[in-house]
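From the methods appendix. Each design record in this collection lists the tokenized structure first, followed by the designed amino acid sequence. Records were kept in a plain field format so they could be parsed without special tools. The example shown here is representative of the layout used throughout.

RECORD:
FOLD TOKENS (177 positions):
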């Protein structure tokens, strides 16, 4: 990659930092490298940025690693941040939540439509409510998901969405009561 001066790098859009490749020290100053790393972090999608806590510390650490490796550096800041976000997402269980959510939408479309319309009538996004309020229990290969839905109207009634999924037998059951 050609070593551009900081003034030209500042004119580049965020999409440039997604595909720029490895950053090498070369003739670059610390400020230029830190700017590239910071912009690479900003180029991440919002849902990936949410999983990276203490971003300032990580940006400085990655900058220091690139400087210490010099021209031998093969670090791609954007890829480093995406791998870190994937790792943190797996630790939080959101990867499993996403898998169960996708399975629920495709295997139980009529129940998903009821759930989605109920949430829409009450002013919520079905997907966001699911990810924020689902409780998951895992016993071996069986995952039980419970999501208490908000009450509506004068006679406040609470509904529950329950999903049971067996990874080993591929059994998938969903209930709305």
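DESIGN:
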């Amino acid at each position: 990659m050609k070593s551009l001066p900081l003034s030209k790098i500042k004119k580049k859009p965020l999409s440039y930092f997604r595909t720029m490749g490895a950053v090498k020290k070369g003739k670059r100053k610390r400020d230029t490298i830190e700017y590239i790393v910071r912009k690479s972090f900003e180029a991440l999608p919002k849902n990936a940025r949410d999983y990276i806590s203490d971003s300032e510390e990580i940006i400085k650490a990655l900058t220091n690693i690139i400087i210490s490796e010099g021209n031998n550096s093969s670090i791609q800041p954007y890829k480093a941040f995406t791998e870190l976000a994937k790792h943190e997402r797996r630790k939080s269980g959101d990867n499993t939540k996403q898998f169960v959510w996708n399975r629920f939408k495709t295997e139980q479309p009529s129940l998903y439509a009821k759930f989605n319309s109920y949430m829409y009538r009450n002013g919520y996004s079905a997907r966001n409510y699911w990810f924020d309020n689902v409780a998951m229990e895992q016993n071996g290969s069986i995952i039980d998901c419970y999501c208490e839905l908000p009450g509506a109207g004068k006679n406040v009634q609470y509904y529950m969405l329950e999903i049971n999924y067996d990874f080993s037998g591929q059994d998938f059951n969903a209930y709305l009561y």
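APPENDIX NOTE: The mean pLDDT is 86.
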